[in-house]
Amino acid sequence: MSGDQAMRDLAAGMPVPEFETTAFTTPSVPLGEARVAIVTSAALHRPSDDPFTATDTSFRTLAAGDRDLMLGHWSPNFDRAGLAIDLNVAYPIDRLQELADEGVVGEVAPRHFSFAGNQPDTVAEIRLDSGPACAAELVADGVDVVLLTPV
User: pTM for the complete prediction?
Assistant: First the structure.
């Protein structure tokens, strides 16, 4: 069995939480007027930040101008080559700015957020703690649209 198939089989058997209510919603605005932020699971962080640990369920805040970012991914199976060549592979901040410059989106949010992709099977910490905390930061920044980049 390939490693890819093993991961698919593992994920297929994981429980999926169900929610009675939506955590939060914002009034929809046309995309050309929307403030857009990126949330990535690439475990990106600035060199001065605490690095992600193997069991880290927290997030790091990235300023829109940050480009000197480090990949904190723990999996030895993760191919880092693309990200080493172009940060936008996992964190498309330059492409997002281009879309804002072209008027496709209203503006780029001042802050973006990074989680580590290695989360406990229940993702309880993200569902109940760090996820809502990150969402509150996005709401505080007036974000209308979040671009999720799973890595």
Answer: 0.81
Best CA proximity match to 151, nearest among 88, 96, 98: 88
Q: Is position 11 within any domain?
A: no
Residue 125 domain-assigned?
A: yes
92 near 18, Cβ under 8 Å? no
- Is 5 contained in some domain? no
Domain with 136 in it: 32-149
Q: pLDDT for 61-86, tens place per residue?
A: 999 999 999 888 766 777 777 777 88
Q: What is the pLDDT of residues 28-54, one digit of tens each?
A: 899 999 999 999 989 999 999 998 888
Instruction: Look at the chain and report how many structural domains it folds into.
Output: 1
> Of all residues in the chain, what percent are helix, strand and coil, respectively (each to 5)?
30, 20, 50
Residue with tokens 């199976």: 77
21 domain-assigned: no
Burial of 105-119, coded b for 16+ CB within 10 Å and e otherwise, reads: bbbbbebbbbbbbbb
Nearest in space to 43 (alpha carbons), one of 74, 68, 65, 78: 74
